[in-house]
Design goal:
about 240 residues, alpha+beta, four-stranded antiparallel beta sheet, elongated
Length: about 240
């Protein structure tokens, strides 16, 4: 990925860790519910923080991690020092995220008129966020298929396959099966008449592992679409 990188995604998972109640009373209802279930909200927040601490330490600066630990995670009103440090970090992350989006849009606008039709329609009409890869295979020379469970996504489908043709490159870092589709970028490939798909995927394993898929192809089409009930049909490619 050139814009929506692994590092940017991992950092996004930290934003929720830096959201705090404004007042102690804000969580009184939740604490009462936990007590009625024989549980302790503050202890569970702290246990969750300690369980995820190795991951958090990879993506937040050390002083911020220590301030979070002293606060018991984010179940309590933060100290002024923690609030200031957290706000500064989140603002910097928002700036980086916004810049990545702007750079990706600028690049796409610069190349879209030179993309093959399949690549442009992929970028503008196919929305794979939250779909899951259920299988993948080569169907022949230069023909690559991805099978997708689309129920959790925005495709209006139960499932489908994406068939890429004129494929000169298909590579990934880890097994793609059961990978959850996060983001993708469409770019102009080096070869004439081809586009490049770059996708960031969640392996759905612990610790939080991400995968990257890269395909260079001349065209792509949707095959074997199974419609979801009561949802508008996706235009055929």
């Amino acid at each position: 990925m050139k814009y929506f990188t692994k590092e940017l995604y991992h950092s996004a998972q930290m934003v929720g860790r830096l959201m705090f109640p404004d007042h102690d009373a804000d969580l009184d209802g939740a604490r009462a519910y936990y007590r009625s279930e024989g549980r302790d909200l503050d202890r569970e927040y702290l246990e969750n923080f300690e369980q995820d601490r190795p991951y958090i330490e990879q993506h937040l600066p050390g002083h911020l991690v220590e301030l979070l630990a002293a606060n018991g995670g984010n179940s309590r009103v933060p100290s002024p020092e923690l609030k200031a440090a957290a706000d500064e970090w989140v603002q910097n992350w928002e700036l980086r995220s916004r810049k990545a989006g702007e750079n990706a849009r600028t690049r796409y606008e610069a190349v879209k008129d030179r993309l093959p039709v399949g690549g442009r329609r992929f970028a503008e009409e196919i929305h794979l966020h939250d779909t899951v890869i259920t299988g993948y295979s080569w169907l022949g020379t230069g023909i690559f298929q991805l099978d997708l469970n689309c129920r959790g996504g925005f495709m209006g489908l139960e499932s489908c396959a994406l068939i890429f043709t004129g494929v000169s490159l298909a590579e990934w870092e880890k097994d793609l099966t059961n990978n959850w589709w996060l983001y993708n970028e469409i770019d102009l490939a080096d070869g004439e008449g081809a586009f490049e798909l770059r996708a960031l995927l969640d392996c759905q394993t612990l610790p939080r592992e991400l995968n990257q898929l890269r395909i260079t192809a001349e065209d792509v089409r949707i095959a074997n679409p199974v419609q979801a009930s009561s949802i508008h049909q996706l235009p055929s490619l």
